[in-house]
Amino acid sequence: MSKLLTDLIEALRCLPGVGGKSAQRMAFHLLERERERGLKLAAVLEQAMQRIGHCSRCRNFSEHPLCALCASDSRDRHVLCVIESPTDLAAIEQATGFRGQYFVLMGRLSPLDGLGPEELGLVQLTQRLGEGEIEELIIATNPTVEGEATAHYLAQLARAGGVRPTRLAHGVPLGGELEYVDRGTLAHAFGSRQLLD
């Protein structure tokens, strides 16, 4: 196998969920049937790597200093939702009617991975909370050990800034059956039960 082909296969392995066999299959497919699209992919990929940075306000991916959501006058500036990644933002935008603003951590507190408050932009978040415009901080980190630790830290930041912290509810999924829900989720849902009106 040529060095260039080996390099292509190895480069494709950087994608999530792509192992050696999948990368080889993709490389062969591009070379055998999709050379024109492969060239377009390469050009767009190069442009994206060079031109897409982070929004100066929310840290989401953006080609401009302010992303479209932060620049919009139709978003509620009193509610800020903190999420771990841009994929979480996309999920919330697609599934809900949330009209507030976001702050993207680009991870969660994980000292073992070298992710502390500075890497997550928490200094910037603290400044935003101190501006006095935000009334509610919705904490939408994932329900993992690191996500829960991050949520606790964020709640402390919010309270220190005079902002009301709220947390997304966790528990039994809509349409789910109790016998199929894992023990941790069921225990959390049981402990967080609410009074019915």
Biggest sheet, strands in spatial order?
4-3-5-6
How many DSSP helices? 8
> Which structural class do you get from the secondary structure elements?
alpha/beta
Q: How many separate domains? A: 2
Q: What is the CA–CA distance across the termini?
A: 69 Å
Residue-averaged pLDDT: 92
Shape verdict: globular
Stretches with pLDDT under 50, minimum 5 residues:
none
The name of the CATH topology of the largest domain is Dna Topoisomerase Vi A Subunit, Chain: A, domain 2
Number of strands: 6
Fraction of helical residues: 40-55%
The CATH top-level class label of the largest domain: Alpha Beta
Radius of gyration: 21 Å
Give the biggest sheet: 4 strands, parallel
N to C succession of SSEs: HHHEEHEHEHEHEH
Approximately what portion of the residues adopt beta-strand conformation? 5-15%
CATH architecture of the largest domain: 3-Layer(aba) Sandwich
Verbal overview:
The chain is α/β, with parallel strands linked by helices. The protein has two domains: 3-51, Helicase, Ruva Protein, domain 3 (Orthogonal Bundle); 73-167, Dna Topoisomerase Vi A Subunit, Chain: A, domain 2. The chain is built from eight helices and six strands. The chain has helices at 3-12, 20-33, 35-51, 68-71, 86-95, 122-130, 145-160, 183-191; strands at 53-54, 61-62, 79-83, 101-104, 136-139, 164-167. A four-stranded parallel beta sheet has the order 4-3-5-6. The chain has a two-stranded antiparallel sheet with strand order 1-2. Helix 7 (145-160) links the parallel strand 5 (136-139) and strand 6 (164-167). Helix 1 packs across helix 2 (20-33). The longest helix is centred in the first third of the chain and has 17 residues, at 35-51.
